[in-house]
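Lecture notes, unit on protein representations.

Consider one protein chain, 270 amino acids long.
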Amino acid sequence: MTTPKFDDLFSVRGKVALVTGGSRGIGEMIAAGFAANGAKVYISSRKVKACDATARRIADTYGASCTSLPADLSDLAGVKSLAVRLAEREPMLDVLVNNAGAAWGEPIETFPEAGWDKVMDTNVKAVFFLTQALLPQLRAAAQGPSPARVINIGSIDGIKTGTFEACSYGASKAAVHHLTRFMAARLTRERILFNAIAPGPFPTWMLSTGVGYGGKTEGVDWDAVGERSPSGRVGTPEDIAGLTIFLCSRAGEYVVGQTIAVDGGIVASA
């Protein structure tokens, strides 16, 4: 029997990673985790100045490579633009994290078509078409010693009924979870491994708006928000980056087509 090798079991050093929605929140946490662990990181978000500033901050903080590629992924023009600009810089893409997302809160009785379309276009359509556009780079990376990875960021609201009046959000995230399984079934044999992560509460702009803080992440009583979780806290950057890095390292190579909740036990206790 071959002696198992446990060296660099959780390493992502030298991998090329693209994180969409990477200028803040969970996307920034994941991008920072990859950069801190030696990956070459690209981040994308709709707001140019915010994307540029976050890329500089991550690069300076961790002495790492982090490049801003701003794009609006709510339409196909933005999706294609991002794919082209990434391909101009990198012939291979080891990791694609589809994190860019949108939400719309409004009661069922008045929920508008615009709110439905915005959420579905950003959360589901962009995930599929960006992955499609980057298949050449993912396939090139998959020819190397390690499979390529695609991590789709869903939500526990796609597993259980959400607490907020956001009709299209939970539906979009459930679609992301199933799309992950579908893509895994089609592309695992090409050594492109798909998994989804379903976050619970994290200290982000999106959650802040939902709990009445208007998008602020500083000066928020996150301890009070976290009391609703069985773990008694909200998630941290280490929690979300740690799971993502595991899935993209040798340690996670046999985990395929799964949706993993990182929520402090909320789904388990629902």
